[in-house]
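Input.
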Amino acid sequence: MNQKVIKFNLGQRTKDMPDLRSGDVVKVYRKIQEAGKERVQIFEGMVIAIKGKQSSSPMVTIRKVSNGVGVELVLPIFSPSVEKVELVKRAKVKKSKLYCIREKTAKSLRFKFKALADLIAVDEKEEVAAEEVKEEKNEEVNEEVKEEVKEEVKEEVKEEKKEEKVEEKK
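Output.
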């Protein structure tokens, strides 16, 4: 039953979920309507919590400090008002919910961040490795298919020879 609910929820999503984790610094591009006009506003902050990753609309809590005041934004990722979510950098954290950073200053946190370029390089290496594995599997499958086709052709040739012999005897 649980797997059916998960499949249903994944089917309800309108766009791909970005690979977000707590500790990521992201830019959220939101559509805002003011005086009949629509514009895109950027909110850059750290992801401190993700709720409902398997649901049809996971909620993300993003926090930034603006002019000495902490501002948090809780929004569904698949909301029509969210144009896109862009990953800026990733911190190495040990918790999935970082509510503890609300009381601390930015200097006392001292997260170790990885720049986006490093993340892209790692992703490219993983993609290359995945492609190599796919190619190897495709080669194995192709060899198996070739062997099966050869066996089928041999069987057909044997049947044709048998039929010819039976016709000759008649």
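The chain has a mean pLDDT of 81.
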